[in-house]
Each structure stands twice: as structure tokens, then as C-alpha cells.
Design brief:
Shape: globular
Structural class: mainly beta
Number of helices: 3
Radius of gyration: 17 Å
Number of strands: 12
Strand content: over 45%
């Protein structure tokens, strides 16, 4: 993506605040194509839904908003919404194509991370988030410390630009599994906090 398409984080902050003040809408609800299931650990869930909050802080801006995420093996539906339920940003991936919708405009790219960074300037490790949200780690991650109960406390994720520090601040039981309740992800001048209010393992409904 080229710089002419790039929008500042202030743009997104303004869009969210404007929506908070002026707009109303329907709240995000779980997909009707899925049914809730229980698992013994989060790795058993091929698909899941998350409802919570995300806060992003950079050297230039900071904002906090509601987060909805429907994750599937080959597709994702991620939305930022206001307290009124109005969707201000949607990022979808499906079969290798990413689509970002914000402020009435639609942008597409073959890489979701490149798309989000190119348009918003946000440096968010989208590819790793599904693992960290469910308390798992990837091949580039190294566990630094554990909590007394055996849950992960901190992870360093190696990245060519700059390593990420991932802190699992608290854990909770959801859908029969132990998953993080609060994550803090940091590197250089970027801090991301994700609070999971509800994590639900789901399976596609049979016809």
C-alpha cells in the first residue's frame, strides 16, 4: 500500500468520537451460522467469537473502543464499535483477501496487516493476535515467565522491525477453557491492551 492512502491515527480517533456522539445503531451479535460449544482448552476451538475492548496508545494518539472478533481458520470478521453498538471500522479476511471499511470507504489488499498499517498507520500484530488472545504462542514467540498457577505471564515475540512484549495480565474461564482476560502488547512507542469480556468457542451449524 502506498502512502497516498495512509490516514493518520487521529482520523480514526475522530471517527470513533464522532460516532460516539452522533450515531446510533444495532449492537454486534454472534453469527447465526454458528453454535456455542465447550472445549477443555482453547486450542481445540477452530472458531471463536470475542467481545471485549481494545485500547491503542502511540506517541501521537490514544483511543479505546469496543471490539468484536469472529475468528475462523480461513476467515476473520473484526469490528470496532461504539458503546451504542455502531460499527466504525470493519476488517474482514477471507480466502487470502482482506477488506477494510471505515468512514464509508472500502480498501482491499492481499495482506490484512499491510492493509491496516497502510491505511491507519497502526502497527498491530494481527497474525499473532488469535494465538495470544487464546493463551497460545507461535513459532516466533518465547515464554519469558509463568505465573505461580502455571499460566503464561510474559512472552517475547521476535519481529524483524522490533520485538513485541506480550504480558498476560489476567486469566479467566470461558467456554470451558482457560483464556487470557487482559493482554498488554508493547514495542517501542506502541501499546495495545485487549480486554476479553466474553470469549466463546463456536462450531458451524449443520444443515
Amino acid at each position: 500500500m502506498g502512502n497516498p492512502l495512509r490516514l493518520s491515527a487521529s482520523f480514526f480517533y475522530t471517527a470513533i468520537i464522532t460516532a460516539l456522539l452522533l450515531l446510533t445503531g444495532c449492537s454486534v451479535t454472534p453469527s447465526e451460522d454458528f453454535t456455542h460449544i465447550n472445549v477443555t482448552n482453547a486450542a481445540q476451538a477452530n472458531a471463536w467469537e470475542l467481545q471485549g475492548k481494545i485500547a491503542v496508545k502511540t506517541a501521537e494518539d490514544k483511543f479505546s473502543t469496543n471490539l468484536y472478533w469472529l475468528h475462523q481458520p480461513a476467515a476473520n470478521d473484526l469490528r470496532l464499535t461504539t458503546v451504542l453498538g455502531t460499527t466504525v471500522l470493519t476488517l474482514k479476511t477471507n480466502q487470502g483477501m482482506a477488506t477494510l471499511e471505515v468512514d464509508g470507504k472500502t480498501y482491499r489488499d492481499s495482506n490484512a496487516q499491510d492493509l491496516l498499517t497502510g491505511i491507519s498507520g497502526w502497527s498491530i500484530p494481527l497474525d499473532s493476535l488469535p494465538l495470544w488472545i487464546t493463551g497460545q504462542i507461535g513459532s516466533n514467540d518465547k515464554i519469558v515467565s509463568y505465573n505461580p498457577d502455571g499460566t503464561i505471564k510474559q512472552v517475547i515475540s521476535y519481529d524483524p522491525q522490533a520485538n513485541w512484549s506480550v504480558s498476560f495480565l489476567s486469566w479467566q474461564q470461558q467456554s470451558g477453557a482457560l483464556v487470557p482476560k487482559l493482554l498488554k502488547i508493547e514495542r517501542e512507542n506502541v501499546q495495545i491492551k485487549i480486554q476479553t469480556n466474553q470469549w466463546t468457542a463456536v462450531a458451524a451449524k449443520t444443515q
